Structures are given as C-alpha cells and as structure tokens.
Amino acid sequence: MNLERGHTFSFSPDGEHFLLDGMPFQIRSGEMHPARIPREYWQHRIRMARAMGMNCIALYVMWNYHEMHRGVFDFRSGNRDIEAFIRLCQSEQMWVLLRPGPYVCAEWDLGGLPCWLLRDPDIQLRTDSTTDPRYMAAVARYIDELVPRIKPLMSEHGGPILMIQIENEFGSYASNPSYLEELRQLWLRGGISGPFYTEDGLAQLERNHTTVTGGAIALSNGDAAQIATVRCKFPSVPAMAGEVYPGWLTHWGEAGFAGVDYDLSGTLDTFMQARLSFNLYVIHGGTSFGFFAGANVDDAGNYQPDITSYDYSAPINEQGRATPKYLKYRDLIASYLPESLPAIPDAIATLDCTSVGALMPTLYASIWDNLPAALPREHGVGPKSFEHYGQAFGFVLYRTPIPAHANGVLDISGVHDYATVFLGEQYAGGVSRAQLPRKYAQSLHMMHRAPLVLPSARRNQGANTDGPVALEILVEAMGRVNFGPALIDRKGLLDPVTMKHADGSVSLLDEWDVYLLPMDEAFIATLNEDCTNPRRPGLFFKANVLLTEVGDTWLDMSNWTKGIVWVNGHNLGRYWNIGPQRRLYCPAPWLAQGNNEVLVFDLHQIEAKPIPLADRLY
Questions:
Q1: Which GO terms describe its biological process (predicted)?
Q2: Can you give 456-505 as a three-state secondary structure string?
Q3: pLDDT in the model for residue 379
C-alpha cells in the first residue's frame, strides 16, 4: 500500500463499511502509547505490531504530558514528539487512529487532563463552555496547539491518520451532547473535517447516546454481537470494536498481575471471518515511567493506585518481546490474509545480570537535609492541596509546632494519598488512602483512612523538653483517579487536621509551614549529600555500577519498602513491597557503557539492601 499520496477514508452510505479510497477496509489496529515507550524503541514496537498482522496503530495523546505547566507546550523533548511517532508509523506502512482526548483515561494520571486545572477549587471537568468556560478555554488552547501538527498527517493530505476520536468513553462519565459537539467544532475550526469517531461501552452508549454528528462508533470491550447491535440502532455510521482487551490493568496490593490468562483467539477469529474492524487495547503497554501511573476508585469508594508497569499482559510485553499470546494471535490472523506477514523483529537484548551482580547502594542523603525554603505561611487557613500550591507530583511536607506535653489522636484521614508522620523527628506512623495488607500496616503503624494515635511528644524528645515540638506530615501523591465520577482528585491534606486530646478536647491545627518536594529532574540534580540523622526515615541511597555493555534490565526492589528509583536521572517509577510488582523496568537507552548511577528514595527504610537485576518483570 502507498501511504505517501493522499487517500480518502470515509464510510459507506449505508454505514456498513469503512472505506479507503472507496473500497471496504478492515481496520486491524494495535494500541500503544508513545509516552510509555522510550523513543529509541518506537520503531521496534511498531514493527512488532505489523508482524502480528496489524495494519494500524492507535495512540493516545496525553494532554498533561505535553502541557505540564499552563500554557507551556512540549511536543519535542524525549518521547513527546508525537508527529515523529506518527510519521514513523507511516514509514512502517501503518495507518493511525488518533485519540487525542482531551480526556483519555489510559490508567494515566487524571486521565491525561492537566492537574493544574484543579487549582481552581470549583472547576468542572469534561463539560461545555456554558457550564465551565475555564475548562473549555484550556481545551481549546490544547486543540489549537495540536491542529497544525495533525492536519498535515491526515490521510487526505498524504499522512497516515484515518480518524480522530472525540473525547473518550464519555458515556461512562456524563450525558452532554453539546460538550462533544463543541469539541468537534474545535477541530473543524482548525480545518480538520474528520472523519471522527467516539468510543464507549455499549450500555453507556445506549444510555447516553454519546455520539457526534456523522462520527463512527467504537465499542469498549466490543465484540461481533455488540457491533451488530450498534449497526441496528445507529445504521448510518460504521461501528468497530474500539478496545478489545488482551490483558488488563493491575493495582498495587492485588494478588497478582491481571489478565495473564485472557485468550482472545475466539474473538479474533470472529473478527477476521467477518472482516470486522477492531483495535487491541493494548497490543503493547510499556511503562508508566515517573509519576504518571493513574488510579481507580471501586464501587465501595476504595482508592486503587495503578502499578508502574503497564505490561497489561499484552501480546507484546513491557520490554517489547513476543509472548505466547502474540505468536498464537499472529498465526490466527495470518491464516486469513492473502499476503505473508513480515518476520518478527529481533528481540531487544537484555543485560547479563549474572555478570553484573546485585547492586549494593549506600546512604547518600536525607530529605530532611534537602528541604527548600517554606512557602509563605497562610495564617489560619490550614493545609492545602498540591494543586493549590502549584505542584503536580512528588511530595509535600506539612509542618506545625505543637506543645511538648501534647499527646492524643491525629486525624488526617482525608490524606491523598500516603502520609508518614513525625513527632519531634521521630517516626510516629502514618495514614494511607489505599487499603494495606495487615502485616504491612502493623509493622509500619500505618492506618487506612483512620486517625493515628500519637506517642507523647515529651517522651520522644526527653523529659527536659518544655518548648513546642514539630509535627511533620510528609505526603506522597500517588496516581490521580483516571476514570469515573471521582475524577477530580486533588493531592495532599484536603481536610482540616485535628488532634483529639486525652481529656476529650479537640484542637484544630491551622498554622502550617509547607515545603514543596516535587522530586523532579531539577530537584534530584541539586540534592546535597547531607544526612545529619541516618536513623530518620526519608533517605536517599546511591549505587554506582560499571557496565561494559548495555541492555534492558529490571531492578528487583523486593528488599525495599516503598519509594522511587532513578537511573542516570531517569525516573523509573514507584516501587512498593505490597506488590504484585517488585521489579522496575530500565531500558538500555537509559544506561551507558562505563559508570551508571542508581538513586533510591525510600519512605521507610534506614538500612540499604541489595538490588538484584533481573531479565523480566516477573
């Protein structure tokens, strides 16, 4: 096929078929996200999808990955160059389905919406300009930034993009046709006339009629029967299975990795027999590096943060290797195609773990010796959210003095999401928004959304202490909720903090010093190698490893408790010993021949432990 000249992608008059240059066309799409794949591996992953029988790549554009600060866009650095990714798809003879949001879900922080939107306390998300013009003004700026990048890449202009999705699974959030139409109009205003499509579960589509004028319909968890149902109810436009799940997402604390036993063979066989269009979500998941992994809230209101790996039990695993699923599906799809499939690309090399051996970090620094200046105190207003202070990710330290004789019960049950508490520099326990295994909670004196009994401050400081002591609450932001009605998910201490005393009285603590600890690249690069109290949790550890050759590897953090790992300044993501993930993926392009620096920040450990290397996720 020739993707260099202009092509016409359209729908048949009866809505029965997608048409490419007037001929019926089956979309066989595999989804992958440039933000989750090192740029050096983009081509390899696209070739893997093609070798499995796909003719198309679907991709999300994560708005908050490209506009991390209001009005400042980045479509060039690292793996943010989506134009380059789309052109690479074209060079590999692959079409593209573009899913630019503004909301994408994707198990990504806040579903791809920028968290700076939440600085406005009464903001309404995913709504039209009549309901909240602030939100839609930000969306319009984002789409206006995308339009000149995307327009030359549309199929009619010789690019590979066949369709653009309007929003994502909006029927699972609300019913507001004017919002979807307003989004469509933004693209039209920029000179992009489609084709467009929407994505929803069948039940949500039927209930809320979340379609756009003339737009095709994609179904989440769709199958042949659901496509037939949609064709009956919406006969003027074609339908496809827009998210077919070969695996599933995994949350911290679950018993194992989800989706391992899924088998799509029957579903794929039906699609191929009937030449129905589909998109595998995901054919390759990759990794939610840094702080971008999202979260869910279950029906009971329990917060469920997502693990760092987005392996998803997909046919192409986190490292880009073909799994048994991949080989099975490739053979099935190939049996229906007249042409032979390309050879499976060579696997990416892994590091020889046995020759390198386990890493043994040593104490490097303390967060307590690296505090920035406190923000100007807001008297009498109590602690506020990360977003109020203009911080997206990482940690915030809240500090207030209390009398040395005070003891009682501290109520920070509204913490989002994980807090360690210190009284006079002594660890006093903590509070977690996510449910914790009993053994973990007991060993660390961690409460689940419940008040924390504090020890006597005088006893911590010694009998001769008469002045006030510092109560310090170090709050970690885990992933923001990315799906459902609880989408507005601010981080930090969101409710007033109180202390109930032994006599039954309750004190409101409303005078706080606040220290912003974003743990971003700039913060890590300027760490001072200081540690005045090595027995106080909140420590950085460092290891140096000499490599004669590089390759992909995983750092096994089974011996550690909860924290973050950087390799040569690259944030690999969070680890947490409640599992099921215990290994963090490190791609070879982030390593170098010669010396490599591994930095670990652990919220709880004060003793370094070995870090073995591994050649797979589990």
A1: carbohydrate metabolic process
A2: CHHHHHCCCCCCCEEEEEEEECCCCECCCCCCCCCCEECCCEEEEECCCC
A3: 84
